[in-house]
Amino acid sequence: MSDSVATSTGVAPEGLSELERTAGPLWRPRGSEWMLGTDGIGWVLYVPEGSNRDAQVRSDQQPAPSIDSVDTAVTWTWPSVVSVTGLRLEIRVTMMLGVDADGLRATLTVENHSPGTVDSALFPWIRGISVPDDRPLRAMTRDYFGAKEHPLWPTFEWNKGYYGTIRPTLMTESLVFGNPTAPFAVMLDGREGVAATVVGPTTEITSWMWELDPGYGDTVGDHVPAVSSGIHAGVRFSAVHLLDLPPAERRELSTIVLSHSAGGWQQALAPYRAHRERTAAGAKVSPPSWAARSHTWYQVQLNSAAGEERFSFADLPRFAADCVDAGVTVLHVIGWNVGGQDRNNPSHDPDPALGGPDGLRAAIDACHELGVRVVLFAKFTWADLASQRFRDELVGSAILDPNGDFYQNGGYQYLTPHQLLGVAVSRLIPMCYLHEDYLRVCEEEFDKIVASGADGMLFDETMHHTPALLCYAVDHGHRPGVSAYSGDRALAERLRSRVPAGHEFLFAGETIYEDLQSAYDMSYIRSHYTAHVPLTRYANPSLRMLTTVSGFDDRNQINQALVYGYLLCYEPRHFKGMLADIPLTVAYGRLAEDLRRDLSDVLWNGTYLGDAPLVTSPGQFASAIWTSDAGGTLCLVANFDETQPLIIELDPATITSFGEHRTVETEWMPNSGALTVPPRSLLILR
User: Fold this and answer.
1) Residue 85 in contact with residue 157, Cβ under 8 Å?
2) Crossing angle of helices 583-598/555-564, nearest 10°?
3) Residue predicted with more confidence, 22 or 43
4) Phi, psi of 152 (to 5 degrees)
5) In this predicted model, what pLDDT tens digit does every residue of 431-454 receive, in sequence order?
6) What mean pLDDT do residues 400-412 have?
7) Which of 326, 314, 408, 329 lies closest to 366, judged by CA?
8) Residues near 494 by Cβ (< 8 Å), separated by ≥ 6?
9) 238 phi and psi, to 5 degrees?
């Protein structure tokens, strides 16, 4: 069957050129048993009317549009629209759907000639997703650590409160779960899937939403209405765009592509991965020479917002000596600023109580003499509400909401019952990177890091501006309602330009999102879950990533890091302890890093292709295929089970492709018809 877009009453047999003249198309992907838009594909605009912020304009309630077909694209045009309350609005809406090699491409243009503002839009608004009855439908969305799965049918998972919705609603959240930090979502049924992706690069805010219409049949268990009930139920899916389009302006929304494939999430995201390779934002930066090779980190906190002053700058050379003994290359220091970690943001003044600027410089010099690099923790995202500096100097650069108030993040709790229960916590204010005054503050604070002689910074919270998405300030030099992410790349570029020539300086950040990755050298993540999904590794195979290792015998986490190409960052006692506290972890990690260096042509300089296509016994495991430009291929399988071995059945073709195997702790051995991966072990085939 060819790709086709059609009405709910028929399918155009050979593509869009034979589309029926109607406003209610549906999409049936080529060779698929899915249909998207069984009740039509369209759009919804939110155009407030007085105090009614939920006033909607819906494509299914409009007069017939004009329709034009050109090759494999169709355009629908509504010169003006009518709201659900019957108000005619001079808003011109143009919807275009086209089919290309990536799938269904959807674009919406809104021209606002009305006196009001178009707040937001749902597009494409897909009313009804039809999949075979014997295949449960689920959604996969990004979270901070990897991905989450949400059932859609025959049970539906909601996360938006009943008090604020009419029907059960699932929506990606603002914290690293919506574009630009997560420009895709995947729907799967076990055999095939569809990925919805934002065509970028873009800093515009797009989220993903699913609704169960009309609602649950049985609320105990979140079950959809049974067919026997006679209730017509379906799942709606939308991309949610935040517009804030004022009168007399025109905006083309971020284009959304729906890509279909047989298989799982990696196959569904393959077109997005190819798109990223073609359109990666900006030229990739070159990391320092020492960071271009595989290496390990040790992270330690000197002081926190609770003010315990656990260590001083004078302790750093001792930590560096421990690093040398453990084969660790980088000492990552946090809580070194005045007041400790997560206090006095955005101050990067070395704390006098820990030794001050001179003490920090001397300590870093001593670490360098031992051959250990020093990276300093940094944070520019927020300002500390409790600081006098915020009230006197920085408040004018805070991101503002539509009411002119600044946003507040709840802050982080440290150690004491008062803090852990949220009583005495420093609240954090998201700051605007488009305000020149604050950019100058960031430059001045960054200069203090460079002046210390450090080998780099790890910019904490790089990936978001929670809880702010848009800034409505009228005196920051940008339009009201601009994306809070709009200044992320400019900030990175301005800071990088301040590093003196000849000073090799690492730019690392936390969970850096796709369109910002080319501005940084490394991304810090936390992946310590057996069910971790390597979404970012698949989307950007060349991205250098660093993951935390904090257990006292953390073999599984180290094995997972090797499978997915993550560097190791030792963080004993939640980065408040010493390397000597975790001797078993360090010893195994050293063996793992030696193996990665021995196989660096593939495991460091190669490309991650995805899960390994192996037949195994039941178990909890992670697998991967890596390949190099020179033709080398490795298969890795990590068995996470604490007690049970994992059995891998090898067919003759696999034995031909991979002739030998080893674990981290054994030598290479020839393959046979079946291989055993011991508990908490990593098997490598080549």
Assistant:
1) no
2) 20
3) 43
4) -115, -30
5) 999 999 999 999 999 999 999 999
6) 94
7) 314
8) 439, 442, 443
9) -145, 145
d(CA 627, CA 603): 8
pLDDT of res. 69: 83
- pLDDT at 9 > cutoff 50: no
Helix boundaries (H) for 281-387: 316-326, 356-369
pLDDT > 70: what percent of the chain?
A: 94
**Sequence-distant (≥ 6) Cβ neighbours of residue 204 within 8 angstroms:** 179, 180, 241, 242, 253, 254, 483
38 vs 142: CA distance, rounded Å: 27
- Structure tokens belonging to residue 460: 């904490």
Token digits for 161? 């409160």
How far, in Å, are 402, 456, 522, 569 from residue 445 at the CA level?
29, 14, 21, 25
**What are the phi and psi torsion angles at 459 (to 5°)?**
-80, 100
Using DSSP, state whether 347 is helix, strand or coil: coil
Say what the alpha-carbon torsion angle 443, 448, 452, 457 is, to the nearest 10 degrees: -50
For the cut 60, the answer to whether the pLDDT of residue 314 exceeds it is yes
Q: 86 in the Ramachandran plot: left (φ > 0), alpha (ψ -120 to 50) or beta? A: left
> Token match 């071995």: residue?
645
Banded pLDDT at 655 (limits 50, 70, 90): low
Q: State the pLDDT at residue 286.
A: 87
Identify the burial level of 161 via C-beta atoms within 10 angstroms of its C-beta, where 0-12 means exposed, 13-18 middle and 19 or more buried: exposed
Q: What pTM was computed for the model?
A: 0.92
